[in-house]
Design goal:
The structure is a single chain. With 138 residues, the protein is α+β, with helices and mostly antiparallel strands. The chain has one domain. 52% of the residues lie in helices and 12% in strands. It has a four-stranded mixed beta sheet with strand order 3-2-1-4, with helices on one face. The longest helix is centred in the N-terminal third of the chain and has 46 residues. It starts with a helix and ends with a helix.
């Protein structure tokens, strides 16, 4: 009976440790994905829409130390908060340190991604069907 209890306790402890390891691995994957996303946002704003920029929100904003990178697409602005460590990169980039004309337009994530998809497909000779667009914008 003691062996069975020991085996159960060992399995529970091993499961907990494995779970923590898995969580740490997922956290690392998430951080790498966000690094890719942040650099891509800066590159997109810089090279696709040169009239774009970045700014530090006002002190009263919850994310005051997180810079905002924005791009002025033909269908409206899109923006991303990036970590404070990006301030130096942004200051060295070709982006102007300025807020978008008219400020934040109040779009939600889906509308922002729809603007991005439209920007990607703007010069395409064909359209994507609505079901594909909806799937991409989920």
């Amino acid at each position: 009976m003691a062996d069975a209890a020991d085996n159960i306790l060992h399995a529970v402890a091993k499961g907990a440790v494995d779970g923590l390891t898995d969580a740490a691995d997922l956290r690392g994957q998430k951080e790498r994905a966000y690094t890719d996303r942040n650099l891509l946002a800066v590159a997109f704003a810089t090279y696709r829409y040169p009239n774009s920029g970045w700014y530090l929100p006002t002190e009263s904003d919850d994310d005051a130390e997180w810079p905002v990178v924005w791009a002025a697409t033909p269908d409206g602005n899109v923006s991303w908060h990036v970590p404070p460590a990006y301030v130096e990169v942004l200051r060295l980039s070709l982006l102007d340190e300025t807020e978008p004309p008219g400020g934040y337009s109040g779009y939600d994530r889906r509308e922002k991604n729809d603007r991005l998809l439209t920007a990607i497909l703007r010069d395409s000779a064909t359209e994507i069907d609505d079901s594909t667009r909806d799937e991409l914008l989920e």
